[in-house]
Amino acid sequence: MDFRDLPDGRLRVTAQQRDHAAAILREAVVDGRLTVEELNARLPTALNAFAREDIYRILDDLVPAAALPAVVAEQGPMGDGPGMRWENPLLIRSTWAGHHQEGTWDLPPFVEIIGTGWGGVKLDCTRARPLARVIDIVITGNPSVNLIVPDGWGVDVQQLNVSGQSGTINSMVPTRPIGDLPRLILRGSTTMAVKVRQPRRRERAITSG
Q1: Which of 12, 78, 102, 106 could make an S-S bridge to 124, C-beta 3.0–4.6 Å?
Q2: Does the pLDDT value for residue 129 go beyond 80?
Q3: Which pTM was predicted?
Q4: Who's near 139: CB < 8 A, 6+ residues apart?
């Protein structure tokens, strides 16, 4: 496709237009039109796009040509606050005492788990309210992580790098979600154990109660 034939290709794009393009790419991963590897390859272009032509190039096989100008012009209602932008993730810090994120809470599309000590992080999403269909979780600073997700959610751990004697990944959750349920993508690196599971019977009883 000659992107010069599309209208206003040289117009500069806003931060909201970049985020909207990124959201389209992330939705394409959920419904199987893109692989995680393809998402990783295209996402930097979306987030650093200078003009509409840059966005046209990464969406041309996902959006009909006639609809591309309208999609690029659309202002994506991503919202504000920590976790709603790639460059401003929700930060979850683990100290020596560890950190538990549980109960009812909003799970935004961008999360970063930072290990500032050797304490572990328990991220319980059983009653979390997901704010997007694709959730990026980046792990840094070598924390151990225990991730609990509801039935039907998907968790992709293929982008996560673990090393060292204690570095292991134990996931009992499918990579792909059921229907429109969320898909979590774990990235980053750690030298500690990462465990991904669904709630145990006792935890289900507490939640239902």
Answers
A1: 102
A2: yes
A3: 0.78
A4: 112, 113, 115, 145, 160, 186, 187, 188, 189, 190, 194
